[in-house]
Structures are given as structure tokens and as C-alpha cells.
Design goal:
Glutaredoxin; single chain; alpha+beta; 224 residues; 12% strand
Length: 224
């Protein structure tokens, strides 16, 4: 029994010493969020827009498999950069950041999972409120959009208070980072659309499906 207990103890120590890299999330100086082992042999960069249906589809099909099969094992690091397309996307991008690194990927997935609902309200909100909010300061415009399409309710359901939500929408540092990332995506790198990807610094030319991106990651890992 003592030998068996020692074996179990040794197994527990080995298991405890193997980190799940999904929980390792940090923010880059440019404002991008990164998940995974810093020294992972493959790095996947995704440029995304929260009003992009293809981005929502990719997140839905890729997230679980990417995290469990690659990030958790220390094989792939994932970096998310914004490529904002409109003010609804900008509002969502600021709210995704609310709560810091530990909340970001969950917030991002929740925004995509409910995209059809909140984005579906955007046309009606635009028709009824566009003229009214055009006269407001930018921060008030963002707050009006968040309330008007239900993004504030979504963030409250994720444990954020109204004061936290307002603070995130009014965060000038975050606003500048999101704008700068978007400018880098559209005017410097000149991506063709979202989602767009880099694998180990090289533009991924395949279709934006999980099957294609996974094949690209496998090729990058095999080349190491």
C-alpha cells in the first residue's frame, strides 16, 4: 500500500507540473491579447472583426479544438488583433477587453456566440437613433450603442458592473490601441478581410476555415 501511495503521489506531482497553457493570457504593448506558452513552436495571429460573420463562424468551429489540441499542450500561441470595420465593431472590441487578460477570450467568444442577436438589432438602432447619437461625444455614442443593441446586457451577464462597462468604453488608452491595430491591419498590412491570419509571421493564404488553418499549423509544427 505504501508503494502504491508513493506511485500515486509521484503521478500527482507530474500532473501538477504540466501546465495547461490556455490559462496563460497576457496583453501585448500594442494591445493585442495572447494565449499560450510564450515559447510555443507555432504562433497564430488572427485579425478579427466582431461584426464579421465569417469570424463568428471560425471562432465557433475552431475555439475548442485549437485550445485543447494545440494551445493547452504548449504547441501553439494565439494572438488576437482587432481589424475594426464600423462603430458597432469598435464598441464590441472595447467591451471584449473589459476585465483584462483573464476575461478577454471568454468575452470574445461570447460576443461571437451572440452576434446574430446583438448585430440583428443594429440596423433598427441605426435607423432610429443615428441622428440623435451623431450629436453626442464619442464616449456617449459608444455607451448608447452598447445599450441600444444589448451589448451592455451581455457584459453584465458576464459579471461586469455598469460602472465597469462605462469605464471600458471610455478608456482612451484602449481606444487608441484598437484604432492603431485596425490601422496596421487595413493600411499597413493591407489584409483582404477578416478573419485573416499569420502563422509564424507569414500571411496564411488559405481559406479562413478551421480545417485549413489547422493544416497550416500542422505544417508549421512539422517544419520545426
Amino acid at each position: 500500500m505504501r508503494i502504491f501511495a508513493l506511485v500515486l503521489g509521484a503521478f500527482a506531482l507530474v500532473s501538477a507540473g504540466a501546465p495547461n497553457w490556455v490559462s496563460s493570457v497576457r496583453i501585448q504593448p500594442n494591445g493585442a491579447f495572447v494565449m499560450g506558452k510564450p515559447a510555443a513552436p507555432a504562433r497564430l495571429v488572427e485579425y478579427l472583426s466582431y461584426t464579421c460573420g465569417h469570424c463568428a463562424h471560425f471562432t465557433g468551429e475552431a475555439s475548442a479544438a485549437l485550445k485543447a489540441g494545440y494551445v493547452a499542450k504548449g504547441l501553439v500561441t494565439v494572438e488576437v488583433r482587432n481589424a475594426v470595420r464600423d462603430r458597432y465593431d469598435f464598441t464590441a472590441a472595447l467591451l471584449a477587453r473589459c476585465g483584462g487578460p483573464s476575461k478577454f477570450f471568454g468575452n470574445s467568444e461570447a460576443l461571437f456566440a451572440t452576434q446574430a442577436t446583438w448585430l440583428g438589432k443594429a440596423s433598427a438602432f441605426e435607423a432610429s437613433d443615428a441622428e440623435r447619437i451623431s450629436k453626442l461625444p464619442m464616449n456617449d455614442v459608444l455607451k448608447a450603442i452598447a445599450k441600444g443593441v444589448g451589448l451592455d446586457a451581455l457584459m453584465r451577464s458576464r459579471g461586469l458592473s455598469p460602472a465597469q462597462i462605462d469605464a471600458c468604453l471610455s478608456d482612451t488608452v484602449a481606444q487608441k490601441q484598437v484604432v492603431a491595430m485596425s490601422n496596421e491591419a487595413w493600411t499597413v498590412r493591407k489584409i483582404n478581410g477578416t478573419p485573416s491570419f499569420l502563422i509564424n509571421g507569414n500571411a496564411f493564404e488559405g481559406p479562413g476555415s478551421w480545417a485549413a488553418v489547422e493544416a497550416g499549423l500542422k505544417a508549421a509544427l512539422a517544419a520545426k
